[in-house]
Amino acid sequence: MRFANLLLCITCSLVLGVDTRSEAQTKRNITETDLYQFHWIGDTQIAPDGSKAVFVRVDVTPDHKSYTTALWLLDLSAPGEAPRKLTAGTHDSQPRWSPDSKRIVFARAVEKDGKPGKPQIYLLNLAGGEAESITDLPEGASDPLWSPDGKHLLITSGTTSEEWKKHEAKPDAEKNKPEPEKSDVRVITRAIYRLNGEGYLDFDHPGHFWMIDMTADEKHRSPKQITYGRLGDSDPVWTPDGSRVYFLRETSDEPYYETPKSALYSVAASGGQPSLVATIPFGAGDVAISPDGKQIAFRGATAVPVRSYSEPDLWTLALTPGSEPKNITQTYDYDIGDSIGGDNRAPRAAGGTHPVWLDNHTLLEVATKQGRANLVKVDAVSSNVSQFTTGDQTIQLFSVSADRSKIISLASTPLMIGDLFSIAPDGKQTQLTNLNQELFAQLTLAPPEEITYKSFDGKMIQAWIQKPCDFDPHKKYPLILDIHGGPHAAYGYVFDHEFLFMAAKGYVVLYPNPRGSTSYGQEFGNIIQYHYPGDDYKDLMAGVDELIRRGYIDEKKLGVTGGSGGGLLTNWTV
Hints:
Elements: H1 4-7, H2 10-16, E1 39-46, E2 52-60, E3 67-75, E4 84-85, E5 92-97, E6 103-108, E7 111-112, E8 115-116, E9 120-125, E10 132-133, E11 142-146, E12 152-158, H3 161-165, H4 172-175, E13 194-195, E14 199-200, E15 207-213, E16 224-225, E17 233-238, E18 244-249, E19 262-268, E20 275-280, E21 284-289, E22 295-300, E23 313-318, E24 326-327, E25 335-336, E26 356-357, E27 362-369, E28 372-379, E29 385-387, E30 394-400, E31 407-413, E32 416-423, E33 429-431, H5 437-440, E34 449-454, E35 460-466, E36 477-483, H6 497-504, E37 508-513, H7 522-526, H8 535-549, E38 553-562, H9 565-573
Parallel strand pairs: 36-37, 36-38
Antiparallel strand pairs: 1-2, 2-3, 3-4, 5-6, 6-9, 7-8, 9-10, 11-12, 12-15, 13-14, 15-16, 17-18, 18-19, 19-20, 21-22, 22-23, 23-24, 25-27, 26-27, 27-28, 28-29, 30-31, 31-32, 32-33, 34-35, 35-37
């Protein structure tokens, strides 16, 4: 009941609540509508020669109903020079450099009747000229991947059911059966049939690989399909000599009821029957091949024993018959990858990252530890993990030049949505962009305060306090407890408009990482299995009590909110 006094009026008070602005101030507090002016950086790729970087810039449309995505170019040889817009499309994404750093391919969706169509692959020559379409596939095309010599381009496209059925081995009796009549009635036959933000999943057009000869003239660049089947393919990587492509293939029509596993295949670049290389006994992804082509690295989490939360690790697999996956971060009890949640990630075309081989035994990777996401180096032989970058930040993307001499990253902090940085060999970062400088120069913003407090059973809980910019410790403030979803996720050093906006309205905002949160190790993350909600609620209440003890919280004005799993805990709290 401690939250009842404020709960019903949170929505009203966020709009009409305490206004901490002063007429004498030249700057102002952040507002809810400032998000319409935000610029995000999404998918980012450094040129193989390290001279430039291309990134997706995401903006809100003028009607505030959607987003535009366009490619921008940053000259890394001219420090301080502003990036320039490279493409005029409104739905451009997935830029990929040619090995000679002279051309860029990317995915573009062209609007028709006010809605973006299926994306196709376009080619842009940096020497000049307009981008030209190089695919026109009925199911669209995505994820372009140049061959090492730049002569071929691998793409992914959906295959029609009629097409993949031609390559399915069927008994004669099955072959002679008439095809069922098509209907506009949607029949659900799978446990997982739609996803948040994606809608209904398309099982009739599994993704497969197609090859384009980039040495041919425009008229003869017809994509050639090289993989088939009713199960989709993903995560392709070229061998260094360009002769083959390794990739992951789905293993089941209905994975929901099975222990996750992955199948690693390879196929000749010219096509042919794919060969099964290894079956990985858990879900794998983000594949990278070593410079000598003898092993791959990938991310994955063990599937046995079955756990609510299994910490993601970095694995290697030798590309020789009978090899078993090796967990090279088994003794590193933190998350591989970025697991910090906030408003930093581009709402469209965010891109992704994968481990990068610096040489044949060292990998560069993102790791999340105690509310921070930084780069680490992992020795694939000794399994030693060493810190490469440090700081109160979240690195969500990084890209490395072909000779591994230049590294850029996309990083966010509580006061920076996300900008590009160059990283020196010693891990020192230098900021390259400042996309939101014009807006943020108008705003009064204050960094959050990190705290650690003791819960009911002695466990230490990390949390952050976002205070009003004109905070006075001698005054009493209303409190909002903000609970993250997941529940296996984490708050941390990342930009979050929601916290800043609530603080600008005069609230103190507490956002903790209770037990069950990621970035604190396997035991801490999985301890809530079969006990959710439970002791995590006690962790949250211990945080509220800690702030009340500090003397600046009005005990009669306590609010709670949260999204997804945080919404469940909000209901549990009240």
